[in-house]
């Protein structure tokens, strides 16, 4: 069994240490467990159906810089409300941030308030672990941290209901605030929250995440996923998302096409990024793209390979990044300097957004250091080839094109 | 129940858009630009949506659109499903950083047929205030004699443009196919490198357009130039910030607390409609021009206190409009300090809401939420825009 010690991110104000969480029902704080869920009332957003390639972007006469979409207004408005009510552990906008000079454009932020808890142990050699109800999970958050329910719809237009109860039979999904935000609008998407699913990718959840990225209609609103072993903090199925109106280095990486699946999904290998990974795009429909990526993730899970996923450009590009940093850390193979800054390469760091907790790390941040962190997290070329072979088999592709 | 956009977006006519362009330069600017043989467009980042305000006859001929169909649209209108996302990103970032860019990109004509072109864009700065007045974009069609595959190494590939061929290294020489030959294949090219002569053509075209603009702006006493000759003033927002703010359709203003008398540095179109003022009448002014005889001074005092403490507040205040009827209205005003990437307060945002709009149909966002969403959108825009420019 491999373990590491790290400071878990506090994503909810009700995230207590296991030892002190002795509460048994009837908590009186409006959570989502049986004690309080019946009185829960949240807005419900039902998004419109996803585009298929036949209906792709039709150039309309009014094609202009798109106005703020409804979902974006909902997220921003509710987030600002919680922000002004003081629900976040610190004022994110007071954290200085800059672009590290260099060709990649890594983004560095000095955030001294994000990692204040004492370190706990995390098991890093099992990507699939069962849900543990005694640990913190998202049914224990207070409803004030929940912004709205989110559902994948089938109609041509989205629908909004300002006040709806949470009905367990419908397996509602919710969007909550992350009380230790990296950037403005940092939220958690929790599919089927009441079903208490462990942090494990499945087709329906990936599709929901894609819906969210697509509906937000803003390329600067990305949705990310960390598997266990790739720095997911909570073993309760969730995605993260936030707004940053800058390109991520990962999004600027050049790539080389490796294969196109039968349903038209183009899979490419990243070339110029310090960490090896795959890019999934196109496809005959967004559902097809979603399913292909899900198949790949499930394959990695079943083979115990930790990974991160970045959904970018309104759901049109999905990056799949297998990693081995935690394993290296547990075996003492991480270079000392990278380890001392205690930056864990989760999905945002891998995308190029570095949140640094010490002033000296921020002031002395260089592109070289960022690259070294990512290089340490990256699979070796050999291992990456092996993993790719597993993935291509799992998604039903025979040999990658261009191969001998 | 479907969701509709909140306040109606303002649709200027072609004439109005062109009018704002003409206003910067002296008479006959349009005629002078029309005489240039090149394909180019000129956009105005200070108009919401960053639309095209001038399109050359060469551009209209190349794309097959009429002038009315082009003026007012964003450059993105000519992209399509197979346009390379990295090219789109490069252009977007160049706009944000207010710098030139030269990139090959796949565009689509009105007929729907795709074509490759070299897109060369430069910012045009006001000589006296250092801000971006326009972006000039030149389009040079690429003949496709050189192609590049996705691996990033430039190789000479002639002849058949099938995908399989593209992935190999050097391929046997054949005559180059003209670029319109097979559209299906055109779309599948990852990249199409422009030749040196095509690059020279674009630079030449950019130079020609710039010199016409410079000449005619000089006549008008408001010189523009290709380089930023002075630091943008503190009362001037970067074009990228203005473009981001232009996406917000509600009434709001940005004021700068670091300048004397905390003047308005940005006013949304909706604010101008609500208050009946013109943009040039409000920029540089303190918001107090909206108050009048019957405005409660204790409310004004409350606002001032919050501003000094750097706290958000919501007040109900009687405002006086400059609309035709000179009517007053109850303004549910929310103000909040907004920080930039340095973590310090750079602006205050004021979001106006006519009190009569409070009881809005229950199936839409609550007005309070909508008001706060404006604050949130402004926060994102301000924080991000300051990270790009030094």
UniProtKB/TrEMBL annotation, chain A:
Record key words, sorted: Cytoplasm, Guanine-nucleotide releasing factor, Hydrolase, Nucleotide-binding, Nucleotidyltransferase, Transferase
Keyword Transferase carried by entry: yes
Domain GDPGP1-like C-terminal intervals: 249-396
Leader peptide range in chain numbering: none
Protein location: Cytoplasm
Domain of life of the native organism: Eukaryota
InterPro entries recorded: GDPGP, GDPGP1_C, GDPGP1_N
Sequence ranges assigned to domain GDPGP1-like N-terminal in this UniProt record: 71-242
PANTHER family for this protein: GDP-D-GLUCOSE PHOSPHORYLASE 1, GDP-L-GALACTOSE PHOSPHORYLASE 1
Stated family: Belongs to the GDPGP1 family.
Name under which the protein is recorded: GDP-L-galactose phosphorylase 1
TrEMBL record, chain B:
Keywords: Chromophore, Flavoprotein, FMN, Photoreceptor protein, Receptor, Sensory transduction
Short name of one Pfam family: PAS_9
Residue intervals of the PAC domain: 311-367
InterPro entries according to UniProt: PAC (IPR001610), PAS (IPR000014), PAS-assoc_C (IPR000700), PAS-like_dom_sf (IPR035965)
Any one GO molecular function term: photoreceptor activity
Gene3D superfamilies membership: PAS domain
UniProt keyword Flavoprotein, yes or no: yes
Alphabetized SMART domains for the sequence: PAC, PAS
Domain PAS: 48-98, 264-286
BP GO annotations: response to blue light
Transmembrane segments: none
PANTHER family linked: PROTEIN TWIN LOV 1
Protein name: (rape) hypothetical protein
Source species of the chain: Brassica napus
């Amino acid at each position: 069994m491999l373990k590491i010690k790290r400071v878990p991110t506090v994503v909810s104000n009700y995230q207590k240490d296991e030892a002190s969480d002795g509460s048994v029902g009837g908590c009186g704080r409006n959570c989502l467990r049986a004690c309080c869920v019946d009185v829960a009332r949240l807005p419900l957003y039902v998004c419109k159906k996803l585009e298929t390639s036949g209906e792709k972007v039709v150039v309309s006469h009014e094609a202009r810089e798109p106005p703020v979409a409804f979902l974006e207004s909902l997220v921003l408005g509710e987030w600002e409300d919680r922000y002004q009510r003081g629900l976040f552990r610190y004022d994110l906008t007071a954290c200085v941030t800059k672009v590290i000079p260099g060709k990649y454009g890594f983004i560095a932020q000095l955030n001294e308030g994000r990692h204040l808890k004492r370190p706990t142990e995390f098991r890093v050699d099992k990507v699939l672990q069962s849900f543990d109800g005694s640990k913190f999970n998202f049914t224990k958050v207070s409803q004030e941290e929940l912004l709205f329910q989110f559902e994948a719809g089938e109609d041509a237009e989205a629908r909004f209901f300002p006040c709806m109860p949470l009905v367990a039979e419908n397996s509602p999904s919710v969007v909550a605030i992350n009380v230790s935000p990296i950037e403005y609008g940092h939220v958690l998407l929790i599919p089927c929250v009441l079903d208490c699913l462990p942090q494990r990718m499945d087709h329906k959840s990936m599709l929901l995440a894609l819906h969210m990225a697509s509906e937000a209609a803003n390329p600067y609103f990305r949705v990310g996923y960390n598997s266990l072993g790739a720095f997911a903090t909570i073993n309760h199925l969730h995605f993260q998302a936030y707004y940053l109106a800058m390109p991520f280095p990962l999004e600027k990486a050049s790539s080389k096409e490796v294969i196109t699946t039968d349903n038209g999904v183009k899979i490419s290998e990243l070339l110029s990024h310090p960490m090896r990974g795959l890019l999934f795009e196109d496809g005959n429909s967004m559902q097809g793209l979603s399913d292909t990526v899900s198949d790949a993730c499930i394959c990695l899970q079943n083979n115990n390979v930790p990974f991160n996923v970045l959904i970018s450009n309104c759901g049109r590009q999905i990056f799949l990044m297998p990693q081995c940093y935690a394993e290296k850390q547990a075996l003492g193979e991480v270079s000392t300097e990278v380890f001392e800054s205690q930056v864990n390469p989760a999905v945002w760091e891998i995308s190029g957004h570095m949140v640094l907790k010490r002033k000296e790390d921020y002031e002395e941040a260089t592109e070289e250091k960022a690259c070294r962190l990512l290089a340490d997290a990256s699979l070796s070329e050999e291992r990456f080839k092996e993993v790719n072979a597993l993935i291509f088999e799992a998604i039903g592709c025979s040999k990658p094109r261009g191969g001998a | 129940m479907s969701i509709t956009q909140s306040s109606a977006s303002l649709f200027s006519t072609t004439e109005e858009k062109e009018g704002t362009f003409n206003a910067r330069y002296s008479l006959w600017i349009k005629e002078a630009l029309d005489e240039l043989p090149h394909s180019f467009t000129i956009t105005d980042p200070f108009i919401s949506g960053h639309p095209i305000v001038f399109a050359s006859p060469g551009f209209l001929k190349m794309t097959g659109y009429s002038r009315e169909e082009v003026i007012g649209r964003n450059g993105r209108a000519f992209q399509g499903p197979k346009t390379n996302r990295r090219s789109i990103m490069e252009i977007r970032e160049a706009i944000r950083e207010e710098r030139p860019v030269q990139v090959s990109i796949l565009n689509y004509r009105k007929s729907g047929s795709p074509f490759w072109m070299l897109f060369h864009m430069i910012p045009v700065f006001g000589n006296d205030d250092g801000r971006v007045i326009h972006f000039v974009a030149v389009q040079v069609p690429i003949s496709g004699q050189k192609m590049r595959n996705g691996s990033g190494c430039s190789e000479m590939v002639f002849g058949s443009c099938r995908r399989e061929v593209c992935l190999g290294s050097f391929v046997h020489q054949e005559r180059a196919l003209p670029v319109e030959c097979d559209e299906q294949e055109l779309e599948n090219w990852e990249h199409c490198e422009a030749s040196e002569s095509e690059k020279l053509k674009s630079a030449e075209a950019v130079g020609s357009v710039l010199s016409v603009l410079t000449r005619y702006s000089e006549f008008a006493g408001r010189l523009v130039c290709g380089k930023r000759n002075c630091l943008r003033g503190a009362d001037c927002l970067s074009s990228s910030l203005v473009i981001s703010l232009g996406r917000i359709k509600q009434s709001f203003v940005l004021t700068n607390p670091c300048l004397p008398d905390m003047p308005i540095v940005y006013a949304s179109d909706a604010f101008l409609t609500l208050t009946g003022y013109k943009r040039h009448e409000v920029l540089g002014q303190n918001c107090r021009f909206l108050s009048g005889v019957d405005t409660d001074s204790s409310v004004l005092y409350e606002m001032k206190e919050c501003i000094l403490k750097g706290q958000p507040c919501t007040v109900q205040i009687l405002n006086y409009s400059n609309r035709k009827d000179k009517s007053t209205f109850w303004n549910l005003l929310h103000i909040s300090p907004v920080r930039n990437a340095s973590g310090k307060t750079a602006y205050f945002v004021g979001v106006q809401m006519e009190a009569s709009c409070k009881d809005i149909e229950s199936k839409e966002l609550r007005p309070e939420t909508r008001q706060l969403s404006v604050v949130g959108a402004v926060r994102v825009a301000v924080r991000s825009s300051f990270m790009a420019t030094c």
